[in-house]
Amino acid sequence: MTLSPTRLRVLVAALLAVSFLGALDHTIVSTSLATIAGDLGALEHMSWIMVGYTLAATVMLPVLGKLGDVVGPRRVFVVSLVLFLAASLACGFAPDLGWLIAARVLQGLGSAGLQLMSQTIVARVTTPRQRPRYMAVIGAAFPVAIVVGPVVGGLITDYSSWPWVFWMNIPVGVVALVLAIVAVPRLPGGAHPRFDVPGSLVFTGSLLALILAVTWMGDDALRPAAIVCAVAAGIGILALIVIERRAAAPILPPRILRDRTILVCLGLSLVVGAGLFSVVAYMPTYVQMAYRASATVSGLVPIATVLGMLVSSLLTGWLVSRSGRYRLYPAAGTALAAAGLLTMALLPPGVPLWAPMAVMAAVGIGTGAFTNLIFAVVQSAASRDDLGAVTATTNLVRQVGAAVGTAVVGGVIGFSVASALPAGLDAATLTPAVVRSTPAAVQDEIGLVYHDVFAPVFLGLSAVYACGVVIALLLPPGRLSDETPAPTASAPARQPA
Questions:
Q1: What is the pLDDT of residues 317-365, one digit of tens each?
Q2: What sign does the dihedral 493-495-496-497 (CA atoms) show?
Q3: Which residues on neighbouring strands pair with residue 479, listed in sequence order?
Q4: How confident is the model over 48-81, as pLDDT tens digits?
Q5: Do the beta carbons of residue 52 and residue 108 sit within 8 Å?
Q6: CA spacing 20 to 30 A to 117: which of 166, 348, 392, 395?
Q7: pTM of the predicted model, to two decimals?
Q8: Distances from the Cα of 399 to the Cαs of 32, 105, 331, in angstroms?
Q9: Which helix (DSSP H) or strand (DSSP E) does residue 169 occupy?
Q10: Residue 398 class from Cβ within 10 Å (0-12 exposed, 13-18 middle, 19+ buried)?
């Protein structure tokens, strides 16, 4: 569907606003987490404020993607935005932790719909050649939220009350809703409006069990539950295969997995999830312990990473939209990120903090070169009827990669640090404040321990990106077309190189 330039700008502004709200809501709450849990008297269960949101936002991606293909992305988008705003209002009025977790689950459901339908709507109203530019603009919401969220959350917590962490979504969301109702066209659903309810339920349950198994496996107390979840996930996947073979409209159409371009993009999405999110999650800990930096200073390294991502993503989107050629950027980006993480592994102890900042900025630049581009490429390889499903699958692979990668890296760090700490120090209670209270010689020893523990972690993540180089080289040559694919097209909307 072709839109006028003015309407397209309004549409992109609305989609960017709601994408930013969804991304911001994850990062802004982390700063206020201890205050919220303390006021509600549930410090021991405060992690579920974040886990409930993340799980809901992840497991519903395939369901919402298929639903958007069936009934049209506009309906799913508007309902998701209304649900997100209502849940934000409910979060601020939460009298206890149970209420808050339930509201956060609903927030996560709404956030998943907003993220996914924003990408799907852009794909439906633009040509493949235009998409990289607009995908990069909407994708900018994530790195900006990483930088802005903790600061805004801290200011609200310090100078106001924590309910405003959630209520601040309301005015921006209402404006975005009005813009969306005006600008988002009434996009039709698929040619075969059927929805696979049994497959959706089994898939959601299996994915939920898998994520919980990965998350809990590193906790001795929760390991039995993790094993049960892993077994349940395995049984669910087997049942899903049987159900999907008989389904008239499977939630994950097998045809989307027969295209080489789609498979390569899924592999690259997995690299982003497992490679980038793992290192960003633990980088502040590394800087605080290895460099004895404050919590504020430790945030500079991940900020340098996401700012590199932001600049690279916007530049790459603009370049690909001009030429239509995209194959170079994933290969060059994964190679640069792999080299950056290899450099991190080889950095000697005691180098100035600007060195890891510069290196991680290079990792961000390499990752940003393809992190949003692959959505435009994967959508160009799918028919219009499968845009929601293929976009959801790409997001899902990234989320699962992030969950598995973060859990594995966290387990390696925890085990290695505990076994290498000097006698008399307990890894379970070791905080930056405790480290600063020890003698200078002990601080140096602890810093060296963290440096030596993280070196093989960086090396392993570099290997993940090196695999990404191989995957990127398998991407078929082609150019993004200036024409929108037909609703039932099965061939990629690409032109020969």
A1: 999 988 888 989 999 999 999 999 999 999 888 888 888 899 999 999 9
A2: negative
A3: 325, 495
A4: 777 778 778 887 888 888 888 888 888 888 899 9
A5: yes
A6: 166
A7: 0.79
A8: 24, 16, 21
A9: helix 169-183
A10: buried
